[in-house]
Amino acid sequence: MKALYDQISRKTSKITTQAYSTSFTLGIRLFNQKYHDPIFAIYGFVRLADEIVDSFHAYNKKSLLEEFRRDTVLALERKISLNPILHSFQETVHKYKIEWALIDRFLKSMEMDLDELEYDQQLFEEYILGSAEVVGLMCLRVFAYGDESMYQELKTPAMRLGSAFQKINFLRDLQTDLLHLGRTYFPKLDLNNFSQQAKENIEADIEKDFQDGLAGIRKLPVGVRYGVYVAYVYYHNLFKKIKRIQSNKLIGYKRIRVPNPVKYGMLLSSYLRYRLNLL
Questions:
Q1: Where in the chain is the domain with CATH 1.10.600.10?
Q2: By the 8 A CB rule, do 75 and 87 touch?
Q3: Is 229 exposed, middle or buried (0-12, 13-18, 19+ CB in 10 A)?
Q4: In this structure, what are the phi and psi dihedrals at residue 131, rounded to the nearest 5 degrees?
Q5: Tell me: the pLDDT tens digits for 251-268?
Q6: Rounded CA separation 167/152 (Å)
Q7: Which class does domain 136-279 fall in?
Q8: Band of the pLDDT at 22, cuts 50, 70, 90?
Q9: Which pLDDT band holds residue 97 (cuts at 50, 70, 90)?
Q10: Which of 77-81, 91-95, 272-276 comes out lowest in average pLDDT?
Q11: Distance CA 80, CA 90 (A)
Q12: What is the pLDDT of residue 118?
C-alpha cells in the first residue's frame, strides 16, 4: 500500500500545479511523460512555500515557514512524509540527487519575504538566486538525470531563464506587491517616480537573461526542449506586452495576461519552430 501513497502524493503535487499555474502545467504536459511527476513535485514544493509567505496573512507566517523547513528536513532524512507534497518532493530529491544547498537557498529567499526589506543590488541578486534560479537548477537536475557534464554546461542558462521569468513577474506585479505585500524588489526603485529610463534599464537586463536562457534551451534533452521553449515563448510574449506600456501607466495597470487565443497560436508557432529546428 506504500506504492498507493506514493501515487497519491505525486497526484497531489500535480493537482497543486494545475490549480495554481495553467501556464506551467501546459509546459510540463509537453514534456516526455517520464519528466512529469518530478517536475510537478518540484513545483508543488515551491508553490506551498510561496503560499505561506504570500497568502496566509491571518496566521503566523514565520512560524509556519519554520515548521515547513523542519518538515522538509525530516522528509529528506526519513525518506517519507505525511505531507503528500513533501513526500513527492523528497522522492524526487533523492532520485535525481538535488543538492540540499539549492533547497536551503530557496527557503532562505522565502524567509526574506517575511521582512520588509529595502533591496539593494546584493539583496536583490540573493533573492533572485533563491526564488528563481535555484528552482531552474532543481529542474535541470531532473532533465540531466545524472549527466553531470550536461548539468554543468546548462547551469548558467537555466539560472538566467529562471531569473528572466521572475523579473517579469516582478514588473507585472509592481502594484500588487507594494499594496498587498509591502514589497518592492527592484533595487532603489521609487514607484512614486518610476521613470521610463528606469523601466528600460530593467527590460534590458531581462532581455539579456532571455538571450542567455534561449542558448541553453537549444541544448536540452529532446524530451523537455519543446515544453521549456513554450514557457520561454509565453514569458517573452508577456514581456513584449509589458514593454509596450509606458512606465507612468504600468503602476495601476490591470493584470497583464496573454489571452487564450494568443496562447494557442503561440503553441502552434512554437511547435513549428521546434520541428524545423529554428529555436
A1: 136-279
A2: yes
A3: buried
A4: -85, -20
A5: 766 667 777 666 767 666
A6: 24
A7: mainly alpha
A8: confident
A9: very high
A10: 272-276
A11: 7
A12: 83
Say how far apart CA 20 and CA 224 lie, in whole Å.
21
Buried/exposed 168-177: b ≥16 CB within 10 Å, e otherwise: bebbbbbeeb
Q: What single string gives the DSSP state of each residue in 99-125?
A: -HHHHHHHHHHHHHTTS-----HHHHH
- Cα dist from 254 to 239, 245, 257, 260, whole Å: 15, 11, 9, 17
Q: Whole-angstrom Cα distance, residue 217 to residue 226?
A: 9
What pLDDT score does 276 carry?
A: 65
Helix 84-96 × helix 36-55 angle, to 10°? 130
Asked if the model's pLDDT at residue 142 lies above 70, the reply is yes
Positive or negative: CA dihedral 73, 78, 82, 85: positive
Q: Which residue has the cell 530557496?
A: 106
pLDDT of residue 181: 64
- Give DSSP secondary structure letters for 177-195: HHHHH----STT--GGG--
233 vs 270: CA distance, rounded Å: 7
Q: Which pLDDT value is given to residue 42? A: 98
Contact by Cβ (8 Å): 44, 36: no
